[in-house]
Design brief:
heterodimer, A: about 260 residues, mainly alpha, three-stranded antiparallel sheet, 5 strands, globular, B: about 290 residues, alpha/beta, eight-stranded parallel β-barrel, 9 helices, about 20% strand, disordered N terminus
């Protein structure tokens, strides 16, 4: 008699074999109609979940190709939990190396943007940082401050103008699609959820670079100094930081323990 | 946005009336006006995130009692429960104060991988211990009893020793959980495995029955010409399942009853019509029980 853990492990392997095995291992099943019914439900549920998270990718490649790509993806990337809004993080990277999609160089970029949008849609509701408490930080310590970005915020640097492609495809805007130039050059994007909904906006490269470093949790000093000596004026720098704080793009701040006054 | 830990609004308890499984295409319809539906049931995992989806659920909760139905806790996993999943469920329960919380007699997680279906358990003493342990763990965290739903199954394991209805009853007895009696699932499994659905009902303890589910299923022919019924929630409740519902009402009395429809979701009016059919039977059952008393 197989132990429950062994049975579930064998059943799981049979599910992921994608039709190459028609039934559960013989010693497990009495009168199994077929494990294929479970496999179909499993794959169609996950395909639907990916389709909801990557609607523009699905339209770009067509339902049949998308389902094929999704199925190939699932065989090597089963979800870790039933929270399926969180499933598909690796799908953009999978598409980037998926030979069958080789003709669409911008597909993985659109997928990256869609994952960021999905993340923004479903991110936990988290209060922005307390500006009054931040203002009370000792001036000598501000150089060591680092921020924790709101879970809905993503910053993306993409080789293709994925934002324009994404909008045109989802809006089914034929004129915009005809005007698209996938080779038009890179875009620097900020994606977030605010009170008005999901925002996808382009940033200037220097402002994006600073934002990216702050969102990565770097202490304030080095990125600020480098921005000052580079493309951002003091006025632009202050305006950018004020906008980030006022827009609630950070939820908390930290000062490393070693830097706190004793 | 609500910052408090719960929502002001309707009483939380679910009446013994016909509710509807609320799905995304009907959100606006339900938010816009009075539907006359006494309660709704939602899939817990669809509301684990924040943002507008969560706001919608809070808005619905202000006007209706809600039942929270989990599909991914995987109570039958030998590996144990996922604390992150359980934590998200607990947070949602605290927020919306559902009248009922339910899950399935099944498993979906093994080796850190989630298989997106309600997979069958062997009906063994080992599986019984695992399910009871996990039901208890869930109830302790949520500080309330849950309902456990019988699944539709398409295969049985050679080493099973306990009939499913007895297995379910044993979990209820050992853990104090209730039973969500899905009549479509009983019918589907009974047809697939040659069980007698009425004997199944007879084996369930009336006092533990906390809710009924009704849904449609598909009849498919496999490659080897075998006919199998598949629980796809994609059509009206079938005549034999309505008949089985009447038998269940006769045995157990009126309970909250849910119309589920998850694939090829129809206009909301179609669900209202299905709920009205359940309501007729609930009324008939009350009259019959009153006469008998």
């Amino acid at each position: 008699m197989p132990a429950l853990r062994d049975l579930q492990s064998a059943f799981g392997r049979a599910l992921l074999q994608d039709g190459r095995t028609q039934s559960v291992p013989r010693e497990l099943a009495l009168d199994g109609l077929t494990v294929g019914i479970y496999r179909n439900t499993c794959f169609s549920t996950l395909t639907s979940a990916l389709g909801l998270s990557f609607p523009a990718v699905r339209r770009l490649v067509g339902a049949e190709f998308f389902d094929h790509a999704a199925r190939e993806f699932m065989l090597t990337h089963a979800p870790a939990s039933a929270y399926l809004n969180d499933y598909g993080r690796e799908f953009p990277a999978f598409l980037a190396q998926f030979a069958a999609a080789g003709g669409l160089s911008y597909l993985a970029d659109v997928a990256q943007l869609e994952w960021a949008v999905n993340r923004a849609l479903h991110a936990a509701d988290t209060a922005p940082l307390d500006l009054a408490a931040l203002a009370a930080v000792d001036a000598a310590q501000t150089a060591h401050l680092s921020f924790v970005p709101h879970p809905s915020v993503s910053v993306l640097h993409l080789a293709a103008p994925a934002d324009a492609i994404w909008r045109a495809v989802l809006d089914q805007d034929q004129a915009a699609m005809a005007a698209l130039e996938p080779a038009a050059g890179p875009v620097w994007l900020l994606i977030e959820r605010n009170a008005q909904g999901i925002q996808v906006r382009r940033m200037a490269p220097a402002a994006w670079a600073l934002t990216q470093r702050l969102c990565a949790g770097e202490p304030l000093q080095a990125p600020l100094d480098e921005s000052r000596s580079g493309a951002l004026s003091e006025q632009e720098l202050n305006a950018l930081l004020a906008d980030h704080l006022a827009s609630g793009r950070f939820t908390s701040w930290r000062i490393p323990i070693g830097d706190l006054p004793s | 946005m609500l910052d408090s830990n719960h929502i002001e609004g309707q009483a939380s308890s679910i009446p013994a009336a016909a509710g509807i499984g609320l799905r995304f295409p009907h959100h606006q319809c339900v938010l816009q006006g009075r539907t006359g539906v006494p309660w709704f049931e939602v899939h817990a995992e669809n509301y684990f995130g924040g943002g507008s989806v969560r706001r919608t659920l809070e808005a619905v909760r202000r006007n209706y009692p809600l039942s929270l139905h989990g599909v991914g806790l995987s109570l039958g996993s030998a590996d144990g429960l996922d604390p992150a999943h359980l934590g998200r469920l607990a947070e949602l329960v605290q927020l919306i104060e559902p009248g009922l919380v339910s899950e399935h007699l099944s498993w979906s997680v093994s080796g850190g991988q989630y298989f997106a279906d309600l997979l069958p358990l062997p009906m063994t003493e080992e599986a019984l211990d695992v399910v009871c342990r996990h039901v208890q763990q869930t109830q302790e965290l949520l500080k309330r009893p849950i309902l456990l739903e019988n699944p539709s199954t398409y295969l049985q394991f050679a080493h099973s020793t306990i009939p499913e209805a007895q297995f379910l009853s044993a979990v209820a007895q050992r853990t104090g959980c209730g039973i969500l009696c899905d009549l479509n699932n009983i019918f589907v499994s009974a047809c697939n495995h040659g069980w007698d659905p009425l004997s199944y009902l007879d084996a369930l303890p009336a006092s533990a029955i906390g809710e009924f589910h009704l849904a449609g299923h598909a009849v498919c022919t496999l490659d080897d010409a075998r006919v199998v019924r598949i629980d796809n929630h994609g059509s009206p409740v079938s005549a034999p399942v309505w008949a089985l519902y009447e038998q269940a009402l006769q045995r157990f009395g009126a309970r909250p009853t849910l119309i589920e429809w998850d694939t090829d979701i129809p206009a909301f009016e179609v669900l209202l019509e299905q709920a009205a059919q359940a309501t007729d039977r609930l009324h008939a059952s009350r009259r019959a029980h009153a006469c008998a008393a």
